Amino acid sequence: MTCHAIHRGGRRHGRVRLFATTFLTSVLASGVAPVLAEDIPEVVITAPRLSIPADARLDAAGDTAKLLSRTPGLNLISNGGVSSLPDIHGLGDDRLKILVDGMETTSACSNHMNPPLSYIDSSRVEKVEVWSGITPVSAGGDNIGGVISVKSAPPVFAGPGEGYAVGGRLSAFYKSVNDGVGASVALHGANGTFSLGYDGSWAMGRDYYAGGDHRAVLSTLYEARNHALTFGARHEGHLLVLEAGQHDIPYQGFSNQRMDMTGNRGVHGNGRYEGEFAWGKLEARGYWQQVKHAMDQIGGEKNGKMPMRTDAIDLGYAVKGDIRVSDGKTIRVGQELHRFLLDDWWPPVAGSMSMAPNTFKSINGGSRDVISAFAEWEEKWAPQWTTLLGVRSDTVLMDTGNVAGYVTTGTEAANAAAFNAKNHAKTDFNFDLTALVRFEPNAISTNEFGYARKSRSPNLYERYSWSTTSMDSSMINWFGDANGYVGDPGLRPEVAHTVSTSFALHDSGRKEWAAKVTPYFTYIADYIGVDWVSNSTTRSSVFPLLKFANHDAMMSGVDVSGSTFLARETGYGDFKVSGMIGWLHGEMVNTGKAMYHVMPINGKAALEHGWGGWTNAVEAQLVGTKAGVDPLRREPKTPGYALLNLRSGYEWENFLLNLGIDNVFDKRYYHPLGGVDYSEWRRHSLTGQVGALPAPGRSFNAGVTVKF
């Protein structure tokens, strides 16, 4: 099991942990617990607590998902300026469970433009936990790739004898590659029992510039605003937190999609209770979120107009108890409910021959309910041996109403009639199983081995997208390939079987050096891939029509990492070197062809320096050629590349300044998971294969934070 946690650190973390403390320590934490001694809790199978370096927060300004970019085995799929999609070992988007302050939210969009992490600004994030591979069942179900939990800072209370505590933080950033600017504020007032806090943020950016020729990459502009009000109360080991918030993205471009976001407004309420008792710990949570989402085309480069609207509600609760049976034994039990309600309709366009006279009903009254229960047993049998065993049940209930097209004749009407004649209600009975053992034969060796069975039911669009026409099907796409997709109500749930092991060596104090190798293998029965239907979509065979279909797939890979101090407490500060390499192979069993969005071999290396309040780092990133591509989706190949990034920061009392240069040599490159450059292709009315999306060029970044 890989379990990484990132915490916002104080000044004591500022010396040598500019960015690799998060990046490399979590790399080395590819198993159940971290490998650096100062971060290891006594209970082994828990999330390690690591600091979020200030430069990592600067990198993620505007796009919270980038806080995860230094996690081993995790990459980001390009999906808009504030909506990147995390991908763990080749499994991303809905195949991951992503929790924001314990809330389980769903992408309420046929293009997945509003993923869960787009609802929280990076300035608010206090802690990030990432479980991959052998994930404990208590972390979450209905996923096959892993669990990501992002948490904001807990309420601030006055200390004993302090009376009242009032304070806050002001931050701002700038990025030259897209003239990105933003600011955030956090305020709190509290006594020893009650706390009230406010968080607000704003960020915007223009179309970013590609490396080399400095041309603007069209449809990459964005703006986002967030507000949250938090109330907290505590008393003798009990904590109650209530939060209400609003989220607004007035616009966001998507260069690798046919559509852009023209509005996304969300409001939410979230409450949690934590209590310490003689028998253990009790946690309870309830939440609700409503989203109103709109899509169309922002600029003229995509040459069209097609308004789309979505209303969605996520609501649910979770109750979990940690029962301490003895000093070395803990039993966790829990019960959860998550309900997702979705209406997706496309208003008619006046004067259009194909998008009128009626409203297109894509998902009409869709619902997806997940009812879950789990039990988990963790025991430390001896100083050398620890085991974890868990089982989880997820019952998934899905349904939707009848649909209708723009017109009442032709293919669209025939598709709607065929869909309406079917029984839409589906029930899946899924279960997960986790078994893990950790063996520490001596003070310098840590070894783990585990097996997990994980399952995921299809999302509403995978089961209930129904139109096969060129225009309609091309609106169902969250893959960045601009193809057309149609659903299948008969899809079966995905079931992934993962075996993973890790071998780690480190100094006895776990402070000076460490090295780790983590190989893994996953076989996915009924993986939801695609079948080719026709080349009937726009512009001949460039964008095929594909149908979601079950196929088996298998994936294998390895993460290798290491770090060591070159010098400590010298007259010129501390010096540390760290690095990692990730390799992954994924293929469809029936064809032997590559799976879509599989990252080629890649690595990072960093030289860090800390001296008093100064932190500096030089980072190199290397990515191999992506030659293995999915031929059905016309996935573009991308050449290998090497990037150099520079970081520097200074902290003095309550003032923090961070500077950085990304892509120092302004290298023109294409991220292997970036998708296609549809906006540029459409603007010039091209007819051949769509090229890969160019990545951002050189960027000078600056961030400043003042605490009070």
UniProtKB/TrEMBL annotation:
Pfam families: Plug (PF07715), TonB_dep_Rec_b-barrel (PF00593)
TonB-dependent receptor-like beta-barrel domain ranges (all copies): 226-664
Domain TonB-dependent receptor plug: 60-147
GO biological process: siderophore transmembrane transport
GO molecular function term, any single one: siderophore uptake transmembrane transporter activity
InterPro entries (UniProt xref): Beta-barrel_TonB, Beta-barrel_TonB_sf, Plug_dom, Plug_dom_sf, TonB-dep_rcpt-like, TonB_rcpt_CS
A GO CC annotation given for this chain: cell outer membrane
Keyword list, A-Z: Cell outer membrane, Membrane, Receptor, Signal, TonB box, Transmembrane, Transmembrane beta strand, Transport
Broad class of the protein's primary localization: membrane
UniProt KW Signal keyword: yes
Subcellular localization(s) per the UniProt record: Cell outer membrane
Topology relative to the membrane: Multi-pass membrane protein
Record has Magnesium as a keyword: no
Family: Belongs to the TonB-dependent receptor family.
Protein name as it appears in the record: Outer membrane receptor protein
